[in-house]
Every structure is written in structure tokens, then in C-alpha cells.
Amino acid sequence: MSVLVVGSVALDSVETPFGRADSVIGGSATYFASAASHFAPVQLVGIVGEDYPVDKLKPLAARGVDLAGLEHAPGESFRWRGRYRHDLNSAETLETRLGVFSHFRPKIPEAFRRAPFVFLANIDPRLQMDVLGQVERPRLVACDTMNFWIESRRNDVIALLGRVDLITLNDGEARQLTERTNLVHAARWILEKGPRYVIVKKGEHGAFMFTKTSTFFAPAYPLEQVFDPTGAGDSFAGGFMGHLARTGELSDANLRRAVVVGSAMGSFAVERFSNERLLSVTPAEIDQRIAEFQDLVAFERGAPVAGAATGR
Amino acid sequence: MSVLVVGSVALDSVETPFGRADSVIGGSATYFASAASHFAPVQLVGIVGEDYPVDKLKPLAARGVDLAGLEHAPGESFRWRGRYRHDLNSAETLETRLGVFSHFRPKIPEAFRRAPFVFLANIDPRLQMDVLGQVERPRLVACDTMNFWIESRRNDVIALLGRVDLITLNDGEARQLTERTNLVHAARWILEKGPRYVIVKKGEHGAFMFTKTSTFFAPAYPLEQVFDPTGAGDSFAGGFMGHLARTGELSDANLRRAVVVGSAMGSFAVERFSNERLLSVTPAEIDQRIAEFQDLVAFERGAPVAGAATGR
To answer: Which of A227, B10, B33, B270 is deepest in the core (most CB within 10 A)?
Structure first.
């Protein structure tokens, strides 16, 4: 089954303690598609300007990402420039030039409107809502958001919650949106607004998936080198949605698996600049990392404490 | 088998967003013993002043904590006053009065010297080393430390690493001691200095256990209310060492289980002020929480990605 993603296609300039990259391909939809393409056909809707090196998207097309929804508009592409210091968990934005992205009105091509899995990457919640008016009964709709929208369009974000099955957001955003410091309370608040699943991303500290009846946690993979954290969250979402589209199954067990696949793809994304590693990673490497995730948390319960001799 | 703990027995005054407690029993050895006593006999070595409400330790004695090594000295007991704001991960120390603790020279009673499990709680590394000269070939020695000793007695901390099997420290301390920001690198640095196991505690973000050949991670339990984080780390250590002493088994699988038991005890500790909850928790509640930990991270691997049809 296919996944539709609507989001940004950008040019990023990034500085990390390990090096720098100038005007490399980035954007939420790009990272998402790069990760998801390992699992399912992807349909991408976004916008680029005249300056975009569209050649650099060819490897995505070759991997089954349908770029028919990528609008080419007069003007400059969305450009982001940022820096990470030693705390690789938070980026310092040095410059954001929205360019053509500021006029982005997503138009979902006819051929994309029946995508069973839809991911609304981090864009204006009104546009996210508008996309939902253009698609036909997807099996699962997920969205992302960010602090900027929570501050400036809080009511729209909350209205969107009533229309999606799942939301991914980071811990700071969850606290900001819900005005609750405790993540369990924050997740419950969000679940009451509509979604059946809330995924709270904690960067290098892993991710929680909350439903009304269960909580799942996947650690971040303990990498020896986080090279560039840009795109980790969207790569997580790409792995997550890609796995669901590949398997077509929405059981609790399969959503847990999807979180781990997402965590694996997020961990690959940060090993190199841009989407480099997401393009080079092999299916065997993905399987290997998923196995390592399982080993990382595996333990067997011993004899119960209750009623046992304590050896006194 | 029994566990020997050497550390502080203090009076804490704590303020959290949820309330305050004045001069309640605290200290690393107290928390450790309260947690460990659910699993094994505990032998405690510490020091208190004339003002200590020793009656309040009776519940510990009743739970099998041998207080024969608790020295009563003229003067004031160790008192700590601190505050937690909304970030419950870090305490703000308002006042520390060492009192008799500043003259603490641990004397291990004859009857405690053959304890098979020894925990050197956070005290001067020279005193920790001195304790090791007083005990006879324990099966496992673990130690804790803190930023203060890493700053002021770094060489002693490093020397101690050559004499212990395991060290617990928090992520900030691991980075400070090793001068490496990446935790995998930090853990490897420590393992090269001697210990077979390094446990890196990340507060509400869980704990890693590193060995030369494997990495294990246990999340923190997603509590709905963290009431008072004081003592979580020592309660973790108490659960960990208590489980090892109860089972007497040092396999990798059993150490993983011990990390989960430790995480469970840490999660109980923070539900109330002082050691209140550690004293009231039942074996059935402990088993229940361990089961919840297992459910929290459980997932089954699906069909491999490699060689699978992607549904294109």
C-alpha cells in the first residue's frame, strides 16, 4: 500500500561539531520519503523554487517516490540554516527563508487521493486540514506539528487533533500544547481530543507511543556518533508509516513494531548529513538494527518476589 | 545472601511542586537499604549525630536491615535541604550541613566483613577504597559517585574504578569523569579502567547498563506523578544489588533483570517523600511493576525487510 506525505522540500545548511554541509537537500517530506521508500511506494506533495537541484531528488524517484505532486514555482526554495552544538538534541536556527514555501497550497494529484496512509508533515495546521479535504478515507492519518504552530495557531492544531488518528510531537511540544508537564497527563489530554495514538519523541532519549489503554517505549539507538540530527523525527515518521503501509495491519502489536522501525530509520538518518545514509542503508542493515533494538531492551522476568524466599 | 552498604544517613528537607517535607529521614544508605531490604538481608554502615530520630529507622530494622554498623557520634547529623522545580530531573541544593558526616571513617563490623555484595554509596572515594581494605573478597562490589568527587578527587575516583566490578553514575557525571560527550564512548572509557559493568542513570529517561560486549537499556517507568525525586538513584542501586543478593547469580541475563528491579524500586521511591513508599510497597506491587516494565518495551519482530516484497 502507498503512503502520501505532504510537507517541506528544502535546502539545508547545517553545522555540527563534526562538520558542515551547505545547501544539501532537506525538508520534512524529503526525510520522510527517504525513510518510507524502504518499505512502501511513497507519494510526495511539496513545493520547490527555480533554484532547487531537482537532480538530487532522482535517487528518491528511483526508490519509488512519486514526485508528481512536487510543485515547481517561480522564486527561491525553502532554505534553513542551523547549527548544533554539543547538545545534539536541539538545533539553533540561524536563518529561515521560506521562499516559495510561504505560498504553499498543497494540491493533491488525483492519482494520490486514495492513498491509504497519509502523513501530514509539519506545515500550517490549516493546510494540514485542507489536505484532509482532498483525500478519500485513508486507513490512517498521522500528523506532525511544531512549537511555532502551537503558539500561533493553537486552536487549529487542536481542531486537527479531531481529524487525525495519530500525532507525533516532541516532548517539549507535547508539554506546550497541553500545558501539562507530566508526559502521561499530556498524552491523555491529546488522546481525549481525538487521536487514537500519540507518539512523543524525546530525541536521544527515545519515543513513547500512548494509546488509551497502553504505553509503549522504544529507546533511541545508542549511536557512537550522531553526525547530524536534522531530519531524525521525519525519518522516524517515514519508517513508522512505511512499515504500516508495507504490512497494512493496524494492530497494537504492529504499531509497536512500526515505532521500532521508525526508531531504526531515525538512527540511520543522523549518521550522515542530509538524507545520505537513508539512501545508502540496505534492508539487511535495517533488519540488523531492529534486532539490536530488541536485544537492547530484552530481559526475562525472574521468579516473582511475592511469596519467594528472600534467603534470610 | 547479604548486601553491605556504606553511605550517608541523613535528614532531608525537600520542597517539590507538590509539597514539602522537613527533616525526614534520607541519605544514600537509607534509601539503598529501604529498597534492598525487599530482596535480601542488608548490613548498613553509616553515621548519625545525637539529633537523629533513630526511632524512625525501626521499620528498616524490622525489615531485616542490620544497623550494628550505624555509628552514633556527638554532634549534628548530616542535613540536606533542597528544592525541585518543574524539571524534576535536577535538584537545587539550598543547604548542606555535613555535621558528623564530615568525620565519617567507616568501620566495618566483624560480622559484616564477609558480605558477598558490597555497595559503596556516594562518599569520598578514599573512604570507599578504605572500605574495600576491610572486606573479604566480595562476589560483587559496586560504587556510586558524584560531580563533587569527580572535580575534587578525580584520581581517587579513577583508582577506585580499578577495584570495583560495577559503577553507577548519572549521564552528566559520566561525561564529566570521562570528558566524552557520547555516552557509548564514555562507558567504554570507564570499562577500560576496570569495572565489568557501567550503569549510566538518566533520571526520567531511564538507565543504560554497558559491558564490553553488550548494552542494555531500561526506561524509567512513566509515572503520572513524580512526587519527590530524592533518593531515586540509591533506590535503584538498592533494588539492583538486592536482586543480585537474592538470586546470587551474576549472569548477563540476571544483571539485566537486576536493572529492571532497580528501575522499579526507583520508580516507587519517587512516589512519596523520604523512604515512605519504599517501606509500604508490597512484593506483589513490585512484581506488578516489573511486569509493566516488560510490557512497556515488548515488541515482536515482524517479517524481515531484506528480501521481502514491498508491495510495490
So the answer is: B33
Query: In 3D, which of B185, B181, B133 has the Cα closest to residue B159?
Result: B133
Is position A303 within any domain?
no
C-beta atoms surrounding B193 within 10 Å? 17
Cite the beta strand spans of A8-129 per DSSP E: 10-16, 19-26, 42-48, 65-72, 78-83, 92-97, 117-120
Residue with cell 516484497: B309
Phi first, then psi: give them for residue B309, nearest 5 degrees. -70, 135
B178: containing domain: 3-85+92-297
Task: Give the mutation candidate from A268, A310, A312 for the B interface (greatest B CB count, under 10 A).
Answer: A310
Q: Is A225 on the interface with B (CB under 8 A)?
A: yes
- The residue of chain B nearest to residue A312, with distances taken between CA atoms, is B41
The answer to whether residue B306 is domain-embedded is no
Question: Is position A221 within any domain?
Answer: yes
| Cβ contacts of A297 on chain B, cutoff 8 Å | 216-218, 297
Question: Structurally, how many domains does chain A consist of?
Answer: 1
Residue A88 placed within a domain = yes
Distance from CA of B106 to the nearest CA of A (A): 25
Digit-by-digit pLDDT tens for chain A (312 residues) are 999 999 999 999 999 988 899 999 999 999 999 999 999 999 999 999 999 999 999 999 999 999 999 999 999 999 999 999 877 777 899 999 999 999 999 999 999 999 999 999 999 999 999 999 999 999 999 999 999 999 999 999 999 999 999 999 999 999 999 999 899 999 999 999 999 999 999 999 999 999 999 999 999 999 988 889 999 999 999 999 999 999 999 999 999 999 999 999 999 999 999 999 999 999 999 999 999 999 999 999 889 998 664 544
Q: Comparing C-alpha atoms, which of A248, A237, A200 is closest to residue A5? A: A237
Instruction: Please tell me the distance from the alpha carbon of residue A11 to that of residue A191, in angstroms, as a whole number.
Output: 35
Local structure of B214: helix, strand or coil: coil
CB contact under 8 A, B299 and A218: yes
ipTM for the complex shown: 0.91
Within 8 A by CB and 6+ apart from B265, the residues are B35, B38, B235, B236, B238, B239, B242, B278, B286
Contact B310 A248 (CB under 8 A): no
Asked if A258 contacts B302 with a C-beta cutoff of 8 angstroms, the reply is no
Q: Is the pTM of this model over 0.90?
A: yes
